[in-house]
C-alpha cells in the first residue's frame, strides 16, 4: 500500500472512524474511503453494505472487480447500572463480539464478584465518560432507574450520535425522562431515538430475557444504522 494511504488508514482507525481500503483488481489502483464519502451507483451501494456488515470481500460493480478491505471500529456497549440485567447482558455481549463496560457509582452493586472478568468501573458516569468519550460506534444502555445516574449519559449519547441509546423503565417513567431531557435542550426527534421501553418487544420477563431483547436491539441498530452523510 502507498505510504500516504497507509498513514490515512491508520489515522482513521486510531480516531475510531470506519474506513474501507478499496482496490480495483483490474488496474491495481487503490484508495481509502471513509464512511460518508460520496460514492454513487452500484459501487456506492456495495460500500454501504460493507460499512454496515463489516465484512471484507470481492464485489463486482460497473463491470469491474473490486476488493473491499473493511475496517470498522470495535463496537462498544456502555451499560449504566450494575444490575441483574447487566450481569446477563455482559456475558452475552462478549459472546457476540462486543466490548462491554459496566459503569455504576454504587459500590454495593459494582463488585468484582458480580462481574468477574468484565470491564467494571465503580464511578459516576460523567467522570468515566470524560476519560472514555462516547462515539458513533458506542451503544449506551441505561438501566439504573435513577435520573441522577442515567440522565447525563443519556444526554451525552444523544449529543454524540451513539448508534444505539436505550433506557429501562415503564412508559410513565420514560415520559418523565423525556421532560428532563427536553429541559437539557434535546429536541423531540433526538429524544425519539431512545429505545424505551428498552429492547425488542419479545415479551421478555426475566433479567436474562430482557438482556436478550436489549442485545438483539443493539445488533439490529448497528447493522441497519444510517451511515454518516446518508439520509436516515
Automatic annotation (TrEMBL):
Residues of the signal peptide: none
Superkingdom in the source lineage: Bacteria
Domain XdhC Rossmann: from-to ranges: 78-218
Gene3D superfamilies according to UniProt: NAD(P)-binding Rossmann-like Domain
One Pfam family named in its UniProt record: XdhC_C
InterPro entries: MoCofactor_Util/Proc, XdhC_Rossmann_dom
Name this protein carries in UniProt: XdhC family protein
Record organism: Shinella curvata
Amino acid at each position: 500500500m502507498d505510504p500516504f494511504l497507509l498513514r490515512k488508514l491508520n489515522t482513521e482507525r486510531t480516531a475510531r472512524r470506519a474506513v474501507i481500503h478499496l482496490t480495483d483488481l483490474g488496474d491495481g489502483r487503490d484508495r481509502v474511503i471513509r464512511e460518508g464519502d460520496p460514492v454513487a451507483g452500484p459501487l456506492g451501494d456495495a460500500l454501504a453494505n460493507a460499512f454496515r456488515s463489516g465484512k471484507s470481500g470481492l464485489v463486482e460493480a460497473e463491470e469491474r472487480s473490486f476488493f473491499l478491505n473493511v475496517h470498522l471500529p470495535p463496537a462498544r456497549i456502555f451499560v449504566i447500572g450494575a444490575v441483574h440485567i447487566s450481569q446477563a447482558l455482559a456475558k452475552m455481549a462478549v459472546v457476540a463480539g462486543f466490548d462491554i463496560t459496566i459503569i455504576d457509582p454504587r459500590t454495593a452493586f459494582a463488585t468484582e464478584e458480580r462481574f468477574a472478568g468484565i470491564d467494571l468501573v465503580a464511578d459516576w458516569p460523567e467522570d468515566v465518560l470524560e476519560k472514555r468519550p462516547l462515539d458513533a460506534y458506542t451503544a449506551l444502555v441505561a438501566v439504573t432507574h435513577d435520573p441522577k445516574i442515567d440522565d447525563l449519559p443519556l444526554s451525552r449519547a444523544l449529543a454524540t450520535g451513539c448508534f444505539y441509546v436505550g433506557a429501562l423503565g415503564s412508559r410513565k417513567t420514560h415520559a418523565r425522562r423525556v421532560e428532563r431531557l427536553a429541559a437539557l435542550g434535546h429536541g423531540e426527534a433526538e429524544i425519539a431515538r431512545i429505545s424505551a421501553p428498552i429492547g425488542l418487544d419479545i415479551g421478555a420477563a426475566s433479567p436474562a430475557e430482557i438482556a436478550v431483547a436489549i442485545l438483539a436491539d443493539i445488533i439490529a441498530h448497528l447493522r441497519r444504522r444510517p451511515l454518516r452523510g446518508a439520509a436516515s
